[in-house]
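Need LacI family DNA-binding transcriptional regulator's 3D structure for a figure. Predict it.
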Amino acid sequence: MVRVRMADVAARAGVSTATVSMVLNGVNSTRISPQTQQRVREAAEAVGYKPNSVARSLRTQQTRMVGLISDTIATTPFAGRMLAGANDVAREQGHLVVLVDTERDAAAERQALNALNGQRVDAIIYACMWHRVVEVPEGLPEDAVLLDCVAAAGGRAAVVPDERAGGVVAVRELVAAGHRRIAFLDAEERFDLVASRLRFEGYLEVLAEAGIEPDPGLHVRAEPVAGGGREAAQRLLTLPAERRPTAMFCFNDRMAMGAYTAALHCGLSVPRDLSVVGYDDQQLVAAELDPPLTTVALPHYEMGRWAMEVALGLRQADPEVPHLMPCPIVRRASVSPPPAQFSD
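Structure prediction for LacI family DNA-binding transcriptional regulator:
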């Protein structure tokens, strides 16, 4: 296969190789008219010229590659949106994303960092599958951007969901519908989830602003899966009528799905007898429940875009203050006023 050279483009366009080089390498020169620049690009396309990326990276000190190191992000239901956001920005800027999934293995992480640093990628994003506080691995460049995690020691550009505000908007939805006995189906403490603490803070904030005295008995913990949600909701729904909640804010959509099942087994209907709000807006769960679940969306796509924009210098970030990405409410059909006998 004969390699097309820059000289071939020059011959086709009727210009010098220096002119071709300046045009194709994006060198700003007022000496080259827009018409000539267009003629060079058309000639390059016509002869099938492909620039030598290695030579170009040596000239520009850019590889046009961004490394994205993740823990198990590539196998979670939210990974696609987060990676799509990062990849869309990279593609818009002419960069290629190199994804390395380490499965939280320290040795694999070190190997990935050594490889990416050796390849002199233009930027690195360090991502987690869920909102975590992390010890930054040795070798991670100072200008690397943290995605869905924050550094324990601070001092790193980072983006995470605004979990507390998400809890606020979820519980306000229930208070606005007239509910006063609102339960929080939370994740067990053994999972040590940052989101659990922040969402609970949001829950308490709204109860306080509504003048509702928190009932410790309505804060129940379970494994944050459908089975855990069902077990926790079952405990609450079998309480005496005067203590039973009329609404539930669930740590995630899977627990909300379990709450639906518990309500059904107790002969209750969502939302006529029990209103439910979830968190995550998980694909193939929230919108598919019957009735479709009102929930709070995790902004994975937006976080992915933000991280890549910072990594490529398209926006500024304060390394001392993580960027909190808004978590909007997604209203569907799982919330209504409480049953008449429970209304104030």
